[in-house]
Amino acid sequence: MHSSPNDASHQGNSAPLKRAMSTRHLVMISLGGAIGTGLFLGSGEVIAQTGPVGAIISYFLGGIIAYMVMLCLGELAVHMPESGSFGAYASKYIGPGTGYTMTWLYWLTWSVTLGTEFTAAALLMQEWFPDSSMWLWTLIFGAFVFTLNMISTKWFAESEFWLALIKVVTVVAFILLGLLAIFGVLGYQGQETAPLFGNLTAQGWFPEGLFPIFATMLIVNFAFSGTELIGVAAGETKDPAKNVPKAINTAIFRLLIFFVGTIVVVTCLLPHQEAGLSAEGVSSSPFVTVFQHIGIPYAEDVIRFVIITALLSAANSGLFAASRMMWSLSYNKQLPAVFSKVNARGIPYVAVIVTMIGGMPGLLSEQFAPETIFKNLLGIAAFTMVVVWMSICLSQFNFRRQWYKAGHTKEELGFAAPLYPLVPILGFIFCFITCVSMVFDAEMLPGFIGCMIFIVACYVSYYTIYHKKQ
User: Fold this and answer.
1) Distance of CA 47 to the CA centre of its chain
2) How far is CA 450 from the centre of its chain?
3) What is the pLDDT of residues 360-374, one digit of tens each?
4) Which of 44, 357, 398, 470 sits a CA distance of 20 to 30 A from 214?
5) What is the DSSP letter of 420?
6) Could you tell me the membrane topology recorded for this protein (predicted)?
7) What is the largest CA-CA distance in the chain?
């Protein structure tokens, strides 16, 4: 597979990346990033903590926040489609130090997420092969995802499309079969009819009170994270002005239907205390319990297979996103030039290799408690993600202010977020509240402090090292 000489000739340092993705790829990449641990494992936690109606409200709110952030991102991405997008927008519309920090934070989010995805996938493989080693599976999965990312952007997009499709089909089947059971078309646990919607309010509307709805927002926002991959991929997309807004609308509405639909089915069919994750791992995922009650054979194996593909597809997108962030830091001369080297197929291979090393904390989990590592990594990934979302809202707010000051109109934009300035302001405030909620969770506090130190270190390094050079 040879590329034409014009895009291979100035490879020595930093060639631009190729535009090889269509809407179909963009939508699936963002769904693939979003349907992962957050839905299959996190949703049960949220239901157990907030009760059924609370969980539906949580996910609905989460979807609206994500949608507001994506509208802001859409406007920026169509105006300036660049790989490593939010960092570039934050540099331009907030300040270069913030842009640099956001790019690093987003890199941290995904390299940490790689660790969580590989750890979780290895734990699941251990349920099938109890005597096998976590190390072995982590390395096998790492090698698989690494290879998919190294072949070519087109291969990456295509593999992500099919991996994500498996998850999407499972979720749709789950919702349809669940609804059939709810309305008594299918038998449920040997009964003629399922409990219908009785479980929703069996313990009152908000059995745990209203506070958990806000306390669980971090898990919920993390479940929607990945949608912003549309912005990262915009730089490698054909005709961004047409494809990006289309992909944003499609992705968010599908996610809302998937998440809220899933929660409705789970909460109708299971008492909310049974929805949370217990120590048994995946066998206690609400998906498995419901499929077993409906009487689907091998429910546990099927769901385990789907969750493993889900985790690998999220890792696949994550490695793609994080390596593009490193590439953009290097392209903007904020990292040594070696990180923006691309090979003949247009892949920033040094960045991909270095980011893979970020997935290594997953290997520690055999020596330490995997659950503790998992929860802390999840907290760090969710927190850094929400901070990046805040920067997207602020960038769009400032961008539009400058746009009007320069005498332009809203109509001149390729895609304009509606209801300015409400959308960026509300998006920012909700994300901020979510970040603060981490302080109240004792288990997540170490992660929160770690993130704060990382952010300060980024700013310090920017202003001491790079600022002096300019």
Assistant:
1) 20
2) 20
3) 665 665 556 666 666
4) 398
5) T
6) Multi-pass membrane protein
7) 74
Element (H, E) at 386: helix 370-405
Partner residues linked to 237 by β-bridges: 21
Which two three-digit tokens encode residue 128?
């099938």
Q: Contact 46/55 with Cβ under 8 angstroms?
A: yes
Give the ranges where 270-369 is alpha helix by DSSP (H): 286-294, 299-331, 349-358, 361-364
Separation CA 447–CA 171 (nearest Å): 31
Q: What angle do CA 188, 253, 48 make, to 5 degrees?
A: 45
The token pair at 130 is: 């109890």
Helix (H) or strand (E) holding 66: helix 52-79
- How far apart, in whole angstroms, are the C-alpha atoms of residue 227 and residue 95? 24
The CA-atom distances, in angstroms, between 61 and each of 64, 255, 305 are 5, 12, 30
* Domain count of the fold of the chain: 1
Length of the chain: 470
Nearest to 145 by CA among 1, 317, 378: 317
Check residues 7 and 162 and name the one with the higher pLDDT. 162
Are the beta carbons of 288 and 47 closer than 8 angstroms?
A: no
> What does the alpha-carbon distance between residue 101 and residue 311 come to, in Å, rounded to a whole number?
27
CA distance 160 to 268: 32
In contact, 292 and 280? CB cutoff 8 Å = no
Which range marks the domain in which residue 173 is found?
Answer: 5-469
Q: What gap in Å lies between CA 343 and CA 350, rounded to an integer? A: 9
The CATH number covering residue 76 comes to: 1.20.1740.10
